[in-house]
Amino acid sequence: MPGDDHPAQPRQSVTRLSTYSRVLRLRHLRLTAWQGELLFWVPVVLGALLALADVATAWSPLVLPAAVALVVVFLDQVERGLARQRVDLG
User: Is the pLDDT confidence value at 54 over 80?
Assistant: First the structure.
C-alpha cells in the first residue's frame, strides 16, 4: 500500500476463538461466534421465562448458563480423550 512503512508479509491464517470458547478455555471444541452466543443467551432467556412464569426460582437465569457451560467443558474434555485415543491408535 502506498505510504505503508511495513514491508508486505504473507497473510497468516489466524483462527480466532469465540469469546465463549476463550472464557471457558476450550481447547478441542471449535465453536463459532453464533454458537457461543446461542449457548449463552438461550439458557439465560429460558431461565428468565421460567422464573417469570413461577415455574423456577429467580436463580434460574444464572444457574442454567452455568450448567450449560459445565456440560460444554465436560464435552471438551471428552473430545480431548478421544483425540488422544486417535493418536494412540495411530
Answer: yes
